[in-house]
Amino acid sequence: MSQPKQLLDALQWRYATKVFDATKKIPADLWAALEKSLVLTPTSYGLQPYHFLIVQDAATRAALLPHSWGQKQVVDCSHFVVFTARTEMHKADVDKLVARISSVRGVPAESMTPYWNMMIGDVVNGPRGKIAHEWAARQCYIALGNLMTAAAVLGVDACPMEGLVPMEYDKILKLEGTGYKTVVALALGYRAEGDKYASLAKVRYETADLIKVI
Amino acid sequence: MSQPKQLLDALQWRYATKVFDATKKIPADLWAALEKSLVLTPTSYGLQPYHFLIVQDAATRAALLPHSWGQKQVVDCSHFVVFTARTEMHKADVDKLVARISSVRGVPAESMTPYWNMMIGDVVNGPRGKIAHEWAARQCYIALGNLMTAAAVLGVDACPMEGLVPMEYDKILKLEGTGYKTVVALALGYRAEGDKYASLAKVRYETADLIKVI
């Protein structure tokens, strides 16, 4: 368990890195921990309606750059993560989760029929089924928040990127027809010494302006 | 900085707490750190388009319970956080951020005109302006992911709750006309000894199923 000061120091230290040192790579053991953090992200019903694409191929990154508002973090970072979310939710998605729970916990799938019905009646045929991609995109944002905090705690820099053209990403990453679409991205690595944004004061509204106690 | 094992142990330890010990409260210093973590959440452009409501009043919590799929965490947890997002984004939201940057960093607001224009052309009058509430809701999910990870790292239990009726929450929390709407909630506190979910194996898909390297 960490001390509060240790956590807050990490969250104060992090910032949306504008310039990465392209020569510095995240060591394999740290990257393995960040991947594992991503996998451990909590999601609605545990459905994990996403894929995380780690784009390491230089040519692919170069192709993404013009569709990323020209942000050079795409090509200079150590690891570039694209968060993609399910376009729709089908019965097969729910069956797959129930099979996985059954396998991991050694319980019969039939014992989860009420849970199966609840998921089908919500994310497939119910209210969230109608906005399934948006619901899945929100789960991607949980993963994004989790990964940014995990990276900060481990001393790894990151830059979240909403500034990209999802349709162009989908083409370059060959997502068409896969049932997944690009939502957001996160560049990870180490800040360049010359990144002047690193030393700017962090701007947040006053606590009293953001948090109300009722 | 934490070691990878320390972080992963915390993420393995956490689970969606079903039964809170209603007698255990988060100590003030830990809660202050969690509040500060929330405030430090990164958001698109830094716009922080949300309010976090900490619902501590017992009568209000009791009123929310029937609109929370009957999940008793609402009344039994130590701190109950409701994430609310801006319904629309206006020029005043952008002006407010620029004024805040100007004040915190001691730079003239005029020097940020290009940044102001970019925000206005995106989240107010541009593509994200058309889906401003959804865009703001996604920022709430960054905060949710951040706060869940922060809580785990500090040894505080939590249960995320999408299972609530936002319109009923909005009425009870008197959000109508404020420009904010309920998106999601997080109950925080300490697990009850008898919560059988605490000891169940965590269910996630295989890393190879969630993460693809390109």
Description:
2 copies of one chain form a homodimer. Chain A has 214 residues and is an alpha+beta fold. The first copy, chain A, has one domain: NADH Oxidase, CATH 3.40.109.10. Chain A contains 10 helices and 5 strands; from the N terminus they run H-H-E-H-H-E-H-H-H-H-E-H-E-H-E. Chain A has a 4-stranded antiparallel β-sheet with strand order 1-2-4-3, with helices on both faces. The radius of gyration of chain A is 19 Å and the shape is globular. The mean pLDDT of chain A is 97. The interface between A and B is large, with 74 and 74 residues.
Describe the structure concisely.
2 copies of one chain form a homodimer. With 214 residues, chain A is α+β, with helices and mostly antiparallel strands. The first copy, chain A, has 10 helices and 5 strands.
Q: From N to C, what is the helix and strand string of chain A?
A: HHEHHEHHHHEHEHE
What is the level-2 CATH architecture name of chain A? Answer: 3-Layer(aba) Sandwich
Structural class of chain A: alpha+beta
Main sheet of chain A?
Answer: 4 strands, antiparallel
End-to-end Cα distance of chain A? 30 Å
Count helical runs of chain A: 10
> Greatest contact pair?
A-B, 74 and 74 residues
- When the domains of chain A are counted, the total is 1
* CATH fold field value of chain A: NADH Oxidase
